[in-house]
Amino acid sequence: MFALVTGASRGIGAAAARRLAKDGYTVAVHCHRQTERAQALADEIGGIAVQADLSDFPALDRMAAEVLQRFGRLDLLVNNAGVSVTGLFQDISDADEARLLRVNAAAPMRLTKRVLPAMLHRHSGCIVNIASVWGEVGAACEVQYSASKAAVIGFTRALAKEVGPSGIRVNCVSPGVISTDMNACHSAETMQALAEETPLCRIGTPEDVADAVAFLASDRAKFITGQILPVNGGFSI
Ligand code: NAP
């Protein structure tokens, strides 16, 4: 089995790549800037490392073609790479907004479009997108980010309807607050407050999300498609 995990050099993507490798996948570990970390992880789990700035669509296309050429097929795509920008809606620059929407919302669609023909050809395949609790309920000072993740949720549901008859499942994991570099901007007090707001009384780990990705990718989820699986310790209840 062959998988491509975007943004797998660190954080949730790295945990997902490790977990999927344990489940028997040969994983393409994608990164943007952290090429050494991606290569080290690929070596550790017996996969390959690939690089592309996903806001650069020609580069994205080349990366997709490289993975398909080296693996010969793709069983699983995990659209995980993402960026966040915080600030008041009107204060986020047009350039930052455009880049965020491109990486978080447009790139997963473009990459899926590139690998889908190979899945359709085999009448089998699985796509797992990573959204966010903010895409479900919205967050002040993360309006563009919330909108990008709501797009990922809509994309998941609609594509699942379209390709279900072709034997392809499309699902989404929607994490709450997870301990990764993405939250390094928050103070220890803020993280503590977020943990206290969470019914399970802690911040999530990348492994918590990786387990959900692995479940949705597995045969145990073979009758599940178009679903949004929250992994947030009860934060959104
Ligand atoms: P992270 O630790 O900040 O890692 C981000 C990953 O995305 C890295 O592998 C990075 O590659 C890659 N990336 C960033 N910009 C890119 C670009 N322009 N082109 C290609 N790759 C790019 O993030 P994370 O917390 O693991 O988040 C992973 C996913 O979960 C994201 O979609 C995020 O929105 C979502 N999520 C996170 C949380 C959370 O609390 N952490 C909550 C909900 C949802 P390099 O290392 O090479 O730069």
Write up this protein:
- The protein has helices at 11-22, 35-45, 57-71, 94-122, 133-137, 143-163, 188-196, 206-217, and strands at residues 2-5, 26-31, 48-51, 76-79, 125-130, 168-175, 228-231.
- The chain is of the alpha/beta class and 237 residues long.
- The chain has one domain: 3-Layer(aba) Sandwich (Rossmann fold), CATH 3.40.50.720.
- It has a 7-stranded parallel beta sheet, with helices on both faces.
- The chain is globular, with a radius of gyration of 17 Å.
- It starts with a strand and ends in a 6-residue tail after the last strand.
Keywords:
single chain, 237 residues, alpha/beta, Rossmann fold, 7 strands, 15% strand, binds NADP nicotinamide-adenine-dinucleotide phosphate
Strand order of the largest sheet: 3-2-1-4-5-6-7
Largest sheet: 7 strands, parallel
**Radius of gyration, rounded?**
17 Å
Outline the low-pLDDT stretches. none
**What small molecules are bound in this structure?**
NADP nicotinamide-adenine-dinucleotide phosphate
Quickly count the helices: 8
Identify the CATH homologous superfamily: NAD(P)-binding Rossmann-like Domain
Mean pLDDT rating:
98
CATH class call = Alpha Beta
Q: Could you say which structural class the secondary elements and strand pairing correspond to?
A: alpha/beta
Q: What is the third-level CATH name, the topology?
A: Rossmann fold
Cα end-to-end separation = 36 Å
